[in-house]
Structures are given as structure tokens and as C-alpha cells.
């Protein structure tokens, strides 16, 4: 299958307060979760980057560092990513969403049609950190940050995000707690 020509950015800058440790450094098959995700997404994207507050990784990975280290916010990470890229879509995924499969990513990719934002959703949730954002959203993200408005749901609504609904809730799980991580480890399957 042909690789997707847009960059993919894995968000690794969260607090991980519910997990009790940094999710991006959790061990998976002898490597950290970030490297696991990086290798997985490198199979379908020409370029894969890591978004983080700092360089906490032992591997040499292409990083996009947050411009501001004083607070945690996915919108801050998105703003740094939009600033980094010029006039392109970027596939955004959080490091703690390890079950997303190729078919779903390609479904999103093939449905891109000049939207500002195109995201995955399931019956129960909108997945704001799984989908394509266009870098033209930079100015609006900057405005939101200046107004101290960090709600991704409000940002996506303002930018008229579109959603594609997927059936399988399990594909879009987040590893929020250590129990989630252990359960996922036991059910680990190939990408």
C-alpha cells in the first residue's frame, strides 16, 4: 500500500497523572511506547515526528518541542505543530492510543477533502487526537491560547471539524491507567 504523503505527529507531552508515570516511556516489547508507535506509523507515513515538552527519549527521533513548557495542553502542542509545518495536513495521534489500525487511518486519509480538521469518532466519543488537522489552523490556535482557552472540543467546533464514525470502540482506547496498559499488553496484536 502506498504511504500517506502527509506527516504524522505522535503527541507525547501529556502529564500522565492518572497513569502515575510517563506513558510515552512505558515498555512495549523491549522498547518504549513512543518508539513502538513511531515504528508502527513509519510503515504508512513518509514522515513521522514526536511532539513533546522536552527530549526525554534515548533514541534519536525527529522532535517538535512545545514552545511553552509552563503548562500541559494538547492545543499548545497542536499550535507548535501547526507552526512547524507549512500548508499541509498533519495526522495527529496521541502516544497512548496504540490500537488504531491502518485501515482506519487510510479511511480518514481518503475522506480528506479540504476540511480544516477531519477526525475519528465512535458511538460514544469524538477522538480529538486521532485525525488530520491542517496547518492553516495555526492563527486560530494561537488566538485560543492567548485567550487561555485550551478545550480541543471548542477549538474543533469553531474550526468546523468533520468526523468519520468507526464501529470498534476498542480500536480507539487510551491507556489512561496502569490497568489499561497491562490489559493492552496482554492483548497486543500486530498492526
TrEMBL record:
Keywords: Cytoplasm, GTP-binding, Magnesium, Metal-binding, Molybdenum cofactor biosynthesis, Nucleotide-binding, Nucleotidyltransferase, Transferase. One of its GO terms (biological process) is bis(molybdopterin guanine dinucleotide)molybdenum biosynthetic process. InterPro entries: MobA-like_NTP_Trfase, Molybde_CF_guanTrfase, Nucleotide-diphossugar_trans. GO terms for cellular component: cytoplasm. GTP binds at residues 11-13, 23, 66, 96. Transfers a GMP moiety from GTP to Mo-molybdopterin (Mo-MPT) cofactor (Moco or molybdenum cofactor) to form Mo-molybdopterin guanine dinucleotide (Mo-MGD) cofactor. CDD domains: MobA. It is found in: Cytoplasm. The gene is mobA. This is Probable molybdenum cofactor guanylyltransferase. PANTHER family: MOLYBDENUM COFACTOR GUANYLYLTRANSFERASE. Its cofactor is Mg(2+). Mg(2+) binds at residue 96. The keyword GTP-binding applies. Belongs to the MobA family.
